[in-house]
Amino acid sequence: MQLRYSFRVYPDAGQRTALAKAFGCARVVFNDAVRAREDARKAGQPFPTAGQLSRKLVTEAKRTAERSWLGEVSAVALQQSLRDAETAYRNFFASLKGTRKGPKLGAPRFKSRRDARQSIRFTANARWSITDGGRLNLPKIGAVKVKWSRMLPTTPTSVTVVKDAAGRFFASFVIDTDPAADATRMPETDRTIGIDLGLTHFAVLSDGTKIDSPRFLRRAEKKLKKAQQELSRKQKGSKNRAKARVKVARAHAKVADARREFHHQLSTKLISENQGIAVEDLSVVGLARTKLAKSVHDAGWSSFISMLEYKAARYGRTLVKIGRFEPTSQTCSTCGVKDGPKPLNIREWTCAACGTLHDRDHNAAINVKQAAGLAVTACGAPVRPEPVLAQHEETGSHGFPTGNRAA
Asked: What pLDDT is stored for residue 17 in this prediction?
């Protein structure tokens, strides 16, 4: 499977200027591709092919006075921008036909120079390299300083340079992992676990372990409020407002980084210690429309479950999602009697049938494990009727801004 290893990079003043020029050229080519597609649609003509767009918007455009500056950046970055536009349209049409999973996607829109995130991608034919001194040598940009948190396990197939809203730069490498090497890193175990995700505790495990919710956003609200107030008092369009905006973005980035680090550490621990893991398929979108929306977003359940999915697929673990309508909080895990719904303020309850006193979250975690049908064979491998393994997926290109967290 493919993963992304992301590292912080520190370009100097000249390299930042070259990167800004590359970001702008890639953005212009993307917008030209969208405009060409829209013009063809309005004229009732067939969409131009990828080859026609490449020849017209890159090769021929460089020879014109209006687009001659496209020749100042790597042609590979421009070609990759065209591929991004092609992929965006392909996903849009698949969404219209209903063949693409997930929420409905709209048609590709024009990119703005004011977008919070800018990026360019270099594939292997761009002849980028890592120098002996550990710098990332990019075409027409130069050797950029990289803060390496670990060595790359294999030769990357591509690198994406990203600038985020806080003005930080990252290099995201695509790596093809070795299944045999991954298997040795996570030996088989005979443990299985059920997880009940919540707000009072971030997670309660079926073995009784309770993991407190760090509440990163709640703890940083005072600082975020002050930074946002300072931004609102600055005159629009002024340099001071731009500085205040970066300060707000950095405060939010700090919260997101801390939350992501917590998710990675916890998911890696659970994957390494358990052969089978069961979780609820929560409707986070629905819960985010309630009065608990801020706490739900602060917990980041979807991000955590996604990490469990790709790590389970990578290391040969079994991840089972049970239905969101399973009455895990209403059923006695001892005798199986359904005791009915209970308000959220009820944290303990006694089963009317068998008299067992239950902790609400611990009981739910046990029911999650039982509903998943996880069992352990004599050799330690988990089995269940028609096991469903987690899907292989690639982590986001800006998913690990504090260093790579692929494991």
From this structure: 97
Which of 32, 84, 298, 361 is labelled catalytic? 361
Catalytic residue, candidates 32, 280, 298, 309: 280
pLDDT of 386-402, one tens digit each?
333 333 333 333 333 33
Q: Is residue 178 flagged as an active site residue? A: no
pLDDT over threshold 80, residue 311: yes
The catalytic residue among 196, 221, 261, 309 is: 196
- pTM for the full predicted model: 0.84
Our answer to whether residue 273 is catalytic in this structure is: no
The pLDDT value recorded for residue 184 is 82
Is 261 annotated in the active site? no
Over the stretch 136-173, which tens digit does the pLDDT of each residue have?
A: 999 999 999 999 998 898 899 999 999 999 999 999 99
> HSE-up of 74 (CA within 13 Å, CB side)?
23
β-strand partners of 349: 358
